Amino acid sequence: MKSIIQAEKECFICKTTLYLENHHCIHGRGLRPLADKYGLTVWLCPRHHRGDASGNQYAVHFNRVFDLKLKQTAQKAFMEKWPDKDFLKIFGKNYI
Fold first, then answer.
1. Residue 62 is part of which domain span?
2. pTM, 2 dp
3. pLDDT band at 53, cuts 50/70/90?
4. Contact yes or no for 12/40 (Cβ under 8 A)
5. Domains contained in the chain, number
């Protein structure tokens, strides 16, 4: 499914359109397919996804605060789109 979080193919953080990577906002054991199914993905540039030569402090995979914010954004989008579905039951955790 297409992302329900963002419409444009650009980095969710800096808005660049170069070298984008798809990031599953909800991830972990068996959760990526569910994130795909419900559109809980965003585009990130390499710097904001995996880090770069200047460091990893801005990369979601190395910054717990940034990771949690994306999970919260994903949960809110899910709950808005599917108010009749139980996020906690499907994903096993509440991020809000």
1. 21-90
2. 0.90
3. low
4. no
5. 1
